[in-house]
Amino acid sequence: MKKKLLVMVLSASLLSAVLAGCGNTDTDVQVGTKDTQKTEGNKGEELETGEVSLRVWVEEANIENLQKMIDSFKQKYAGQAEFNITIEPSGDADTRTNVLSDIHNAADVFSMPDDQLYSLIAGGALSPVVNQTEIRDANLPDAVDAASYQGTLYAYPYTADNGYFLYYNKEYLSDSDVQTFDRILEVAAENEKKISMELNSGWYLYSFFGNTGLDFGINEDGVTNHCNWNTTEGPIKGVDVAQALINIATNPGFIAQSDSLFIKGVKDGTCIAGISGVWNAVAIQEAWGSNYGACKLPTYTCKGQQIQMSSFKGYKMFGVNAYSKHQAWAHKFADWITNEENQILRFEERSQGPSNVVAAASDAVGEVPAIVAVIEQSQYGVLQRVGNSYWNACTSFADTIVAGNPDNMPLQDLADRLVKGITASVVQ
Predict the structure, then answer these.
(1) Which residues are within 8 A (CB) of 162 and not within 5 positions of it... i.e. 6 or more apart?
(2) pLDDT digits (tens, 9 = 90+) for 248-280
(3) What does pTM read for this prediction?
(4) Domain 165-312+388-422 belongs in CATH node 3.40.190.10
């Protein structure tokens, strides 16, 4: 699912203190238990032979798929322990909050998006990956980086598709039409249709600023942001982007709405294009059939020039609770459900793009338009690393833009207010 995330990253000094004893080498997790055995190929950690109960948190839509992995895990390790593995539905966007609010009662293994990694490490919630070299070699370099801190892997990557791109209906739009936002808007308006985007979400709004040469990012304190989206200097200024956004938002071919309303528009025929992610691929393909298309984001007009839209990109991973009572088996299980075989199963049944190197390079993955599109767009994307004050500021700014700036606020004032909110030391 898309991440509308409130990034509650702790300060860099606190993070460093928490991690001081963790090291950054291939470290085996040693778990002392009452009834244990050494298992070949497990790098020497002790695995219990008695009853092993594990709880797993995943998105509700992934439960059926995960159950098959649990069944194969039990079959693989039959006779080594008595497994009781239960699945509990939990939204990935809520993982950090749910874990840190009660670490001792959180699941043993939990799914999460990469931008929650640092705060979970700082909160002492993650047990580092056991077989560091093996997992690092098996996955795409970007996915490994996203799951690491100071050279140590803290989670097991399993998807490389948590970004966004353009969906389009080929009945109305050609491959050349979707190269520019201007042409998409023109075709949509001519046909009394819409291109949809959740413009008032900072997750998507970033796409218009990211490739302009303007500056934005999180500071070294891991909490606050730096941003010059209100600059009055340079080839593209903050007001230029603001004006471009107003031009798009007030176009009759555009509609600003949530992902769920976009899917509704796809199904009822009002939307012929939209910016979203792979989580909607199945529903869109079912609605459009052979007219289903997906590609990188288009360019848009800003100050008389075409700017390639940028994006946030991300990865999903499974973490192991540092307080798991069965930590060695929790690692073994997390490793199993993120291996090549199960990433392929996840792709086949859930259309989720693998982070595993071999699985990602398969011909089947290359034939899925949504996954090809997110990979193509990733060259214009950056990892989402932002401070918490970013989100509300973006929503307030975009709400004004979507409304067409009804109070006629000078665009420089609008940009100044946006940057003031983004760079605030506390959420406003």
Answers:
(1) 3, 113, 114, 277, 278, 313, 314, 315, 316
(2) 999 999 999 999 999 999 999 999 999 999 889
(3) 0.78
(4) yes
